[in-house]
Predict the 3D structure of the following.
Amino acid sequence: MKRATIIAAVLALWIGLWAAGATAADGGVPKMLELGKLSDVYEPVRFNHAEHVSTAGGCADCHHQHGSMQVQSCPDCHRIDPKAFKKNANAGSLKPCRDCHAASVRPGDIGRPGLKAAYHQACFKCHRGDVGSVGKDPKGCTEMCHVPKAQAKADAKK
Amino acid sequence: MADSTKKNALEVAAREGMQQAKENDRGGKGAFSRRELLQTLAAAGGVALIGAPGDVFAGKKISGWPDRMGMLTDLTECVGCRSCEKACNRANRLPEPEVPFDEKSVFDRKRRPTASAYTVVNRYENPNSSDRPFYRKVQCNHCNEPGCAAACPVKAYTKTPEGAVLYNKDVCFGCRYCMVACPFYVPAYDYESALEPRIVKCTLCHERVKNGGIPACAEACPAGTITFGKREELIELARTRIRKHPDRYIDHIYGEYEVGGTSWMYISGIPFDRLDFPADLIEKPLVEQTKGFLSAVPLVLTIWPALVGMCYAATRNKEGKE
């Protein structure tokens, strides 16, 4: 009985660590992401990328969904490793979104959305209208993704 | 051509007059008085009528400040989160609103910018999909040739080289002509203070822009709806989007030509009149509509006293003879 409890605890710990930290287990495709560390209104969003990969039909369902306006070519973001390419185009490394989409928008940065806009536009493709109430109610922001910082503090006190 | 020459001459004369008045002001003569203003206007009118320096400006066409900035609102992207309203409120240190910014009941009626909210977002039903209503952000459009500035009798409005139309509360005496003159019904009157009249409206975050920043609403927008940049580049960007996605947009950049062009422009998926944009605006600046009449006013003011005086003199002589 005691042994079973220990095993369960270790297993739980291991799963927890995997969920929080595993970002490069499968050829560079992120599993769990913590987004929006820059926000001063909301807590960072814990985004389950793996779940979205299984739901979406392909990368382009979310990424560069407006017909790749500014992206020159695939290797711009996907550094291709010939050995693993047939198995997974992402093997090697993926360029982070922020390398092209600036975190703080400066005057003159037009034609390419900033990091915040790029993330949201990717999400809104499904989460505006179809899933959740984004676009119908301003409270839709806190419905699925965002936890206000004030609320997080209040919860922590409890 | 003659018209525009006169206009140029008028502008230059007015500017010189203002300069003179400012110098006098600095010389310790006190505030810019009504007499100086009238003198300036009379001088400007005279120059315009005589047309003396006209040749100097012949062939020169003024089409606004070359590098002025602007905003492009892509109405297809807006999700009505009201982040722009909140950011505007914070950036301008406006009072906390009665209903919080994440409240959707505000969409039940169409709002206008007020003294405590320089920008508001309104919702419009989408006839094709109730899940995807349209939103329209309303604020000052910062016209290239602003009607408010033309209507203002004390020159409280300035069109800056950066694109913003700014309001100076120190000279305003509260006539509210600008509120009538604005084709977009933007300037709002602050009724809170009876002794210090002031009009309030969006400033295109002029201070932030001058310090190398971008307007607060554009920075806060999570959806990439609002883009800040040079007006010419924004028009290019809008054209590119419309060309690449003809199914998503209607072929119209609102504000490119309306009332002579505005700094704030819009692209949309449905016709603009369905989002309560004034659809019947002329493509020429509103100023041009009144210029002919107004340029005759100084003439009347200068010639009529002389005419009336002559009539009086003639009549008196006659009476004297009898």
